[in-house]
Amino acid sequence: MEISTIVWIGASVFVAVILYILIKNWVVIYNKFVYWRTRAERKFADIDVVMQQRIDMLPALAQIVKKYDIHEYKALKEVIEARSRWTKDASLNEKVQTVQEIDNSFLRIQAVFEKYPQLKADALHQSILGHGNVSRMESRLREFRLGYNRVAQDYNERVQKFPRNVVAKVHGFKLLDYLTMGNQVNQGPQQSYKPKELFEE
After folding, report:
1. Which terminal residue of the chain, N or C, has fewer Cβ atoms less than 10 Å from its own Cβ?
2. Region 166-191: what's the mean pLDDT?
3. How much of the chain, in percent, has pLDDT values that exceed 90?
4. Could you tell me where the DSSP H helices lie in the chain?
């Protein structure tokens, strides 16, 4: 066998081994991305359940505000608009953004209820938000938020580090947003809206 043939066979084997190692590592990295993204989605599912409970409260809270003819409707209007954007088909980052919009608006509407004792004294308000319901919900959200953010951080580190970032870019694994929950509440003056602009009979 000629030396050139031996060299060619040796080079071919070497290239085949390198390609095998690269492909194997690529598959391992890809599967790890799938694993961590799935973990993030599962962690967010806990938040999803609690936020759905909040969303279910909104029609009743709207009726309380309407009943007492309170004119600070901006908080409630934003909550209702955020509720309409809540969809199971959205991406994880879109859901994170909507959760924060709902949470910030929920805090605003709580501030409106704090300002008007007659709203807080309403029996429906007591049944919805009384008896520690809100504090238990806040505690669960805080726990779930921390769990989600820890997984998102681990995932994001993998998305950014070489050589994993090459696999992430090729397969469209993008950075996940973190949940801040209530850190962006607008403390500025509320605008007034007429009830008909918000509630249709």
Report:
1. C
2. 71
3. 26
4. 3-67, 74-85, 92-115, 117-121, 123-129, 133-160, 164-171, 195-198
